Amino acid sequence: MEKISQSVVKKDHAAKMEGRSIYVADYNTAKDGRKILTGKILHSKTARAKVLSVSVPDLPEGYFYVDARDIPGDNNVNIVLDDMPVFCRDTVEYIGEAIGMVVGPDAKEVDRILSGINVELEELEPVLDLRKSTEAFFNYEYGHGDLQKAFAEADKVFDEEFETGYQEQAYLETQGMMAEPEDLDRMFVHGSMQCCYYVHGAVKRVLGTDNIHILQDVTGGGFGGKEAFPSILATEVAVAARKANAPVRCVFDRREDMEYTSKRHPSICRYKAAVKDGKVTALDIDVIFNAGAYSTLSAVVLQRGLIAAPGIYNVPNIHVTGRALKTNTSPCGAYRGFGAPQTFFAIELLMNHIAQDLGVEPLAFKEAHLVKQGDPTSTCGEYHFPVPVQDMINEIDAVCDYRKKRKEYAKAQEGRFRRGIGMSMYFHGAGFTGSGERDLIKAVTRLHKYPDGKVEILASNGEIGQGLRTTFCKIVSHELNIPFDDVFFEHPDTARVPDSGPTVASRSLMTVGELLRRASVQLKEIWKDGEEQEVEERYKEPDFLIPFHLDKFEGDAYPTYAWGVNAVELEVDTLTGVAKVLGAYGNFDVGTPMDYNIVMGQMEGGLLQGIGYSSIEKMDYDNKGRIRNNSYSDYLIPTTKDVPNLKCLLHVEKYPYGPYGAKGAGELPLVGVPGAYVEAMEQALGKGHRLNHAPFTAEDTLFEIMKEVGK
Ligand code: MTE
Ligand code: MOS
C-alpha cells in the first residue's frame, strides 16, 4: 500500500467519539453570550394555494413574526434560477413551504403562537402526478449518429419504461441554522451545511449586503441534502435575526426534515433500443425527473442523469431528451449520485432484458458493449484514461463466484425460498459536470504557514463525514513532508477562507485536493523556517479536456471517471415477500485511496445506502401532496444487520491529474446498486418476471408472485 493510503486517526475522531463536537443545536448561547431565540417555521399545509391573508395573534414582548415583508434584499434564494422564495410570495406551491417564521425566547411559546396563526387561503388544484405535469423547469436534448437509420435497420426494437422513487438522505443531524447579528451591522450565519459559499451568496442577496460571513458548524452528514437546503434555511434565520436584532436559531425536527427538505428525484425513464446482429445499435431515451415545486438544483441533477443515460456501453447512435418537471411537492435536490442512479438503473435493466430476450447471459451481453479507453463518451468527449471494468468484473466474480451462481440460480427453483444474483456496472463522472469548474467555480485555495512551522489549510470545503479534514491534511503533510499533526484544517468560515467551491460532486478530494498538493509544492520551494508565509493555488482546466458546451451537450462532461461494479445475491421468501441479502459486493476504482479506512468507509456506506435505495427505502406522498413517510419507523433504512455480508474491493487506476492519483470517491458506491439488486430479484422470481422499478419492496415481490398464481 502506498504511504498516503495508510490510515491515520481522523482529525475529528476524538471529539466526535467523546461527544465533544458542538453541532448547531448544541450552542447554549450565541458567540457573544447573548441568549438565542428559537425560530420555527410556519409551513404551508396546502400543496397549492393563493395566500389571501395571514393573521397573527398578539405577540408577547420579545416575540416576532417574520415573513417576506421583512426581507431587506431580494426574496429569492440564490441557487440556479430565481424561483425559490425565502418566504412565500402570493402563493404556496408545496406542503411545507415557509410562509413565515415565529421567533422568541421560549420554544413552547413560539409553538403556541404558531398554532394560533390563521392563514386564509384560496386553494388551487395542485399538480401531483408527474406524468400529468406540463411545466418543465429544464429541458435538454442531445445525441449523435443516425437514429432513424438504426431503428429502420434493426432486427428488433425494445421499448421499456423504468421508474425510481424518492430517497431521503437520512443524515443523523437534521437541518439547522443560526444567525447572529454582530457589531457594525454584520450578520454571522452558521450551521449544518456542505457549501458555505453557496450560503454566503444566498444570504448576501437576501439581506442586500455582503457584510456577512458564513461558518460551517460540525455537520452530521449531508449526502447532498445539505447542498441547497441550507441556503434556504440560512436566509430565513438571517432575515429573522435582522428583524429581532438578536441571535435566531432554527433546527428542524425529524418530521419537518423528512417531509419538507430535498430528496432524490423520483424518475420515469423511457428507453427505446434498436438491436441488430446481437448488438445494441441505437438508444432513444426520454427521462423525466420530479423536481417538486421549485427548480433548486434540478438543472444540474438532470444533466448528470442524462449524460449517464446510455450507461457504460458503446452505442453508436443515441438520442437523449430530459425534463425536470414541476409538481406541487417538496423540491428535490442532491443526493449522492446526483441524477445518475436513476438512469443507470434504467440502462442496466434494459440491457438485462434485451440479453434475456436474445437468449444470452446479461453479463456477457454487457461485456460485449463495454466502452474502452479512447472511445467517445455519450456527449462526444473521450474516455481519456483506462477503463478497468472488465478486470473489475473478473475480480468481483472471483470473490463471489458470480458466473457460477448465476447459472445455478437460473435453474427452475421450487419451494418457499428462491435465490438470485445480479450485477451492475457504471461510472461516476468525477467532479463538477461540464464546464462548471472552469466557468463558475474557479476554485482558489491557500496554505498559511505559521512561524512555528504549522500549516493551515484555507479552503471552503467541509467535513461531512467523508473524512475531508483528514484527507486534506494528509495530502499537505505528505507533499511538504511534515508531521500530520502539524497540518490543520478548521471548519470553513467565509471570512477566513477563499472560495474553493462547494462540497459536492465528489470534487473536493480530487479537485481541491490537487490544488492543495500543488500549493504544498509551492510552499516547499519558498519555505523559510520561523516565518509566516502564505501561498495560493487556482484551478486550471487540464489541457487534455475537450471543452464541454452545455448548449450542445458536447465535449468532455468530466475529466475522468471513477468506476464501479456491484454484485448482489439475495434470497426471497415467497411466503412473506421479504428478501434477505446474502451478499453485497462492490469493486470500486476511485484511483489511489487517500486513506484506506476512510475510502473503505465511503465504499461500504455508499453500497449499503444503495441497497436501501433498491429495496426498502420507499417514500411517497398522498393525494394531497403530503409525504407519508416522515419518521424512521415509516421510512426504513438498512443497517449492517440487514447486510451482514458486505464486501468491497478497490481497483486502483491512478488519475494523473488528481492528488497522487486519486479520483472522486464519495458518491460512486451508491450509484449503480439498484441495477444489481433488481436483476438478482428478477432471477430469484424466475423466468417471465420483468421488473422495472426501484425500490423493489417486499410488497412488490408479493404482487409479482400473485401474478404467477393468477396465471
Ligand atoms: N460520506 C459521509 N459520511 N457523509 C456524507 O454526507 N456525502 C457524499 C459523499 N460521502 C457524504 C459522504 C456526497 S453526496 C458527496 S458529493 C461526497 O461525499 C463529497 O466528497 P468530496 O468531499 O470529495 O467532495
Ligand atoms: Mo453530493 S450529491 O454532490 O452533495
Quickly list its features.
alpha+beta; binds dioxothiomolybdenum(VI) ion; globular; six-stranded mixed sheet; Aldehyde Oxidoreductase, domain 4; binds ligand MTE; Aldehyde Oxidoreductase, domain 3; 711 residues; seven-stranded mixed sheet
Describe the structure.
- With about 700 residues, the chain is α+β, with helices and mostly antiparallel strands.
- The protein has three domains: about 25-125 and about 170-260, Aldehyde oxidase/xanthine dehydrogenase, a/b hammerhead (Aldehyde Oxidoreductase, domain 3, Alpha-Beta Complex), CATH 3.90.1170.50; about 355-435 and about 555-710, Aldehyde oxidase/xanthine dehydrogenase, molybdopterin binding domain (Aldehyde Oxidoreductase, domain 4); about 435-540, Aldehyde oxidase/xanthine dehydrogenase, molybdopterin binding domain (Aldehyde Oxidoreductase, domain 4).
- Helices cover about 30% and strands about 25% of the residues.
- It is built from 18 helices and 24 strands.
- Strands 3-5-1-12-9-10-11 form a seven-stranded mixed β-sheet.
- Ligand MTE binds near residues 468, 506 and 508.
